Amino acid sequence: MVTLEELIAELIAERDRRAAAQGSDPMAALKNEAARRKSHDAMGFPVQPVGGSSTNSAAVDELRGKGRSLIAGAAKGTSFGMIDEIMGALAGLRGTVGGKGFSPEYRRVRDAVRADMDNLQQENPGTFLTGNIAGTVVPALMAARLAQGASKLGTMGRGGAIGAVEGALHGGGNADGRGVARQARVGALIGAVGGIAAPAIVGASGAVKNALQDPVTGVVDSLVGRANQGKAGRAINKAVRSSGRSPSDIADEIRKAIQQGQPQYRIMDALGVAGQRQASGLARAGGDAGTEITEFLSRRQMGQGERVGSFVEDAFGVRGTTAAQTRSGLTQARGDAADIAYDAARSGAAPVDVRGALGVIDARIGGMQGSGVAGDGIDGKLAGYRSRLAAQPGPDGVSRELSDFDRVLSVKQSVQDDIGAAVRAGRNNEARELGKLSSELDAALEGASDAYRAANDGFREVSRVIGSVDEGAAMSRGGRAGDNVPAFNAMNPDMQGAARVGYGDDLLRRMEANTSPTSNRAKPLTSEKRDAEAAAMAIDPRLYADRLARENEMWSTQNRALGGSRTADNLADQDAASNMASGALGVARSAGNMQFGDVAAKIGGMLGPLARGQTDQTRQLIVRALMSDDPVAALGPSIRQALSTARGRRLIEALLRQPMRESADR
Known about the structure:
By secondary structure, the chain is mainly α. It is built from 29 helices and no strands.
């Protein structure tokens, strides 16, 4: 088989022989030409030895001529018209190596190839054009992979950029050295316009094809009860594109949800609003597909309260306990530890000086003693404690005060119990006055025993932890995050743990009060206040936030699909179940009643499924893909289908750009 380079070399040699013949003696030229004709055919190829059979030399010559034109056209198309420059450059490189110089050889071969290309195009214009078009497929195939954008606008932008480059190369390459810059500019402009227009043309053509084809295939699919994988894949791919998320992003979201204990999170949730709309349309379309997705969404929503409750328990350490149980356990532990510590404080304790405590009591009730004026309940309590701490002066006028450590400690514990009762009853003034007495008694007992001081510090510290349970519950019930977060951060780790339990327990109590099965249990937990407090208080704030965000997305999916009135959905199901005759009768009945709005709605209801061409079996494929927790298996077929379609469209677009940029030559 004759290669392109051998063909061009032979053509150059032929041109040189003709030039030499024209510059010599005419008779010699004629003789040379006669000799050449005996040894070469009309196209310059050596005549093959004559065998035992004869051939039609004219037909062979014609076939060879068309073959050379086809090859030359393909070479020109593949090289954007720069085959003459390419061959000239190769000859120039050989000339440089052989000592003839680059420029002379470059110009000689370039001009020869250019002239021969023109001759071949004139001799066989149709064959040359066929080869030229076939040659453009090579760069088109190479460019098609680069022309796919993330969106329609992105694809058009990429097509415009590629078209501009192709047009500039084509315009400059076919200028044959005349006005190269201008032709390149014109070619770039035409190529850019063609590159932008091609995706729109191909997209519109595809839409028209689907609009004409889908009803027909839909009828066939309905008759045989067949699912159409192509239509299902098209719907899924549309949802993925609309979501703005890549398949790998969706797979990562599903995998992360499973790892974080939410296997109920599915592809339709990861697709965002696009997936919710698909789920809604399928649920409202009725049929087996609608029933399947409706039942799944309903079951999942019924379990939301339990899921969200477990997330709160994990986030705030409530699992297995409650605020009351935590408070009771801490109180019991405090009492056990206090018994041991205070027993140790009793041994070796010195007499207790209660004069400071008596001074606190007398400052409140001293002026009333002996006056006959009755005081309030606080005065009565303080008078009772005074009688336990000191006896009335005897006949000798000497006051006898209590100094026994155990007896004074018993008084102090009674005062502490009264303070707790007053706090729980809301008697804050009583708690404040009794607190003064308690502080003085503590000081007196600490002065009598160093061990008591240590025991008292431990008791006070545990009491602060117990109180943190109620502080956490109060933070949940109210207060600004700007106050609650600094207060929580100021606590020590034990107090923070207790506050978490109180906070989480109050959240769970509020959730349990909401008994509506369709309400979103996660929504009240994601306000600005809750987010700020959870970021500071939760054990793992990121995990807690991720879980609540997914629950909100899952609720949005079911609410869009199943929320609102079901009357319209039931009517749609009835219409879908009716045959065309009953639908036509319904239209006629509505028209007879002058209900033209109902007429339009019923006609649209009849034509909608027909236009889409989706059978119930096809919708089931879409439903199962949306409900899947395996993106690879669910999205794989549709992704492969989309890639194949996209590659085909990009190739068609690349081929469309070719005739558009060819106009730059005219």
